[in-house]
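[Automated response] Your request has been received and processed.

Submitted sequence:
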Amino acid sequence: MSIYAKLAELGITLPPIAIPAAAYVPYVQTGNLVFLSGHIAKKDGKAWVGQLGKDMATDEGKLAARSIAIELLGTLHAAVGDLNRVTRIVKLMSLVNSTADFTEQHLVTNGASELIGQIFGSETGAHSRSAFGVAQLPLGACVEIEMIAELA
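Generated structure:
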């Protein structure tokens, strides 16, 4: 099944690439690797603000991470023209805006990892990952995730 058929089956429409809000580019390709800049969680078109362990629960953070995965796929599509060219999602790095005693950053990040696995399958979608707790993110966003993908 093509990636686009899988997205349609899941009811996902890829968003257009977001315009960077600072001095960076949304992606860089070198050789067969594409590095996607960090994407923050958005809700209703604005930063999805919150801090895990204070005013957000793990399940809500997981939904935010899932929404970022969709945004990342929109950027990846813009970068490569056809998501079926992706041979491997290499790595996700997740930053979770969280209190000092919140320890479920890995569960929040599962929102993105699980969706990537659903869409790309167990071979192509299996990726390495880091999930960090941080004191704050741009615009007060609850989660930020970046991605590295390999192309055929």
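Summary generated for your ticket: The CA atoms of residues 42 and 48 lie 5 Å apart. Helices lie at 3-9, 58-80, 105-124.
If you did not submit this request, please reply to this message.
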